[in-house]
Design a protein that fits this description.
The protein has 13 helices and 23 strands. It is an alpha/beta fold. Helix 6 links the parallel strand 10 and strand 11. It starts with a strand and ends with a helix. The structure holds shikimate-3-phosphate (S3P). The site of shikimate-3-phosphate has 12 residues, from helix 3 and helix 6.
């Protein structure tokens, strides 16, 4: 089967209700916490994508049984010290930065060296950002080029608590250290710039020894050694990062309407909603509820008659970090010049996304001014293209692929977009839902 998709026609107006797949961040966290719980944990609507399967394969290699029956995933945890560490263990996080970074926090007590590997994209990403703080606990690391995968972790049985300042706004760094703190002897302190807080909410829900004090620009988190995690049954809500593609597709198609059911709207994830509302898109949350500490709602969005440019406040960056590529498409059609700044972290993702954002926009005929951490987008409300566009060699970044599909369906032209299988990383159902909207 060809791994390329060809799109030659714009999408017609739609008025639909859809379900997107389970939240990736929550799915990976559930797998990791359940692997250390005592008893059988069950999850419904777990995201079945490569990143989550990689997490399952890692815990299986650590001796934890996992079973799927019907649509339920069962993890047979053996308690906080239940991992079976053995010699010459190789673990592969594949494409997942979240998995690679979080799992290291849990492995700092390994009695044998463990090798952590990843695919080509993950092997280019910075792991020093987590091995530096994790070394403070007493673990040691050997990294490829002092920074990358493959790396080897040498654990310790005498882990000291640490004080750690997380100043990138990275939930992966913060979470890796929270998980490491769960294994250290004493109370660790984490002073973290705001970022997604699923790890903290799950730990709180499980009544683990964690205290969180929230201040305007940072969170103060204290974590003590964890002795026991009780089993955890979870119905994973839908992923706002996967929803983002359909939210923007709807916003860009002025006579369309969409409802996305049961989405996690944790306020550390809703940057895209704030940004699009500021740009003039009508979005509302309906049927709001709280589930195990997480906020959930149906998202209703209407196509926008016109879009306004935005000077995006940097405080929204972390809450929209995975959505910027697709947000740039909204800016491409807005009236005026949009400006997104302090976004160096975007180039630390599965591919250098600021660069790919510029590439896609240039293909659309949109002028941009890009620095190493910012982009200005000179919008064109009449944007409509009529040429051939090829998108390839983007390190198989799922979000470059999906953003390109949304651009093709919204702005016209004849697109050949390579590496369709990249969607398996986070959202295998993506093209199926696109087809539902076309019906
Ligand atoms: C994630 C955190 C973010 C995000 C990633 C998922 C998580 O990464 O980009 O897709 O689940 O913790 P950073 O923490 O590096 O910003």
């Amino acid at each position: 089967m060809s791994n390329k998709i060809i799109i030659k026609t714009k999408i017609k107006n739609f008025n639909k209700k859809i379900y997107v797949s389970g939240d990736k961040s929550l799915s990976i966290r559930w797998v990791l916490f359940a692997s250390l719980a005592k008893g059988i944990s069950k999850a419904k609507n777990l995201l079945i994508s490569q990143d989550v399967i990689a997490a399952i394969n890692i815990i299986k290699k650590l001796g934890i049984k996992v079973q799927f029956s019907k649509k339920i995933c069962k993890i047979y945890g053996k308690g906080i010290d239940g991992y079976k560490y053995k010699k010459n263990l190789n673990l592969n996080a594949q494409n997942s930065g979240t998995l690679g970074r979080l799992i290291l926090g849990l492995l700092i007590n390994t009695p044998f060296p463990i090798k952590l590997l990843g695919d080509q994209s993950l092997s280019n990403r910075d792991f020093k950002r987590v091995t530096d703080p994790l070394s403070e606990f007493g673990a040691k690391f050997k990294l490829h080029k002092n920074k990358n995968l493959p790396l080897t972790i040498y654990g310790s049985n005498n882990l000291k608590p640490i004080i750690y300042r997380e100043n990138k706004g990275s939930a992966q760094c913060k979470s890796s250290v929270i998980l490491g703190s769960m294994r250290a002897n004493g109370i660790s302190t984490i002073i973290a710039k705001k970022s997604r807080n699923h790890t903290e909410l799950l730990a709180k829900y499980l009544k683990l020894p964690i205290k969180i004090n929230t201040f305007k620009n940072y969170d103060l988190i204290k974590v003590n050694r964890v002795k026991k995690i009780k089993k955890i049954n979870y119905e994973i809500p839908s992923d706002i990062s996967s929803s983002a593609f359909f939210i923007v597709l709807t916003a860009l198609n002025k006579n369309s309407k969409l409802t996305i059911k049961n989405v996690n709207i944790n306020s550390s994830r809703t940057g895209i909603i704030t940004i699009l509302k500021k740009m003039g898109v009508n979005i509302i949350f309906e049927n709001k509820k709280i589930y195990k500490g997480e906020k959930i709602a149906d998202i209703k969005v209407n196509g926008a008659k016109s879009l306004k440019a935005i000077n995006c406040p940097s405080k929204l960056n972390s809450g929209a970090i995975d959505e910027f590529l697709v947000i740039f498409l909204a800016a491409a059609k807005a009236k005026g010049i949009s400006y997104f700044k302090n976004l160096g972290e975007l180039n630390q993702k599965e591919s250098p996304r600021l660069k790919w954002g510029k590439y896609i926009l240039t293909q659309l005929g949109i002028k941009t001014a890009v620095t190493k951490d910012s982009i200005k987008i000179f919008g064109n409300p009449k944007l409509n293209i009529n040429k051939k566009i090829i998108i390839k060699n983007y390190l198989k970044d799922h979000r470059v692929f999906m953003t390109s599909v949304i651009a093709a369906l919204s702005f016209g032209g004849e697109w050949s977009i390579y590496d369709k299988s990249s969607i398996n990383t986070s959202f295998p159902n993506f093209l199926k839902i696109i087809n539902e909207l076309k019906k």
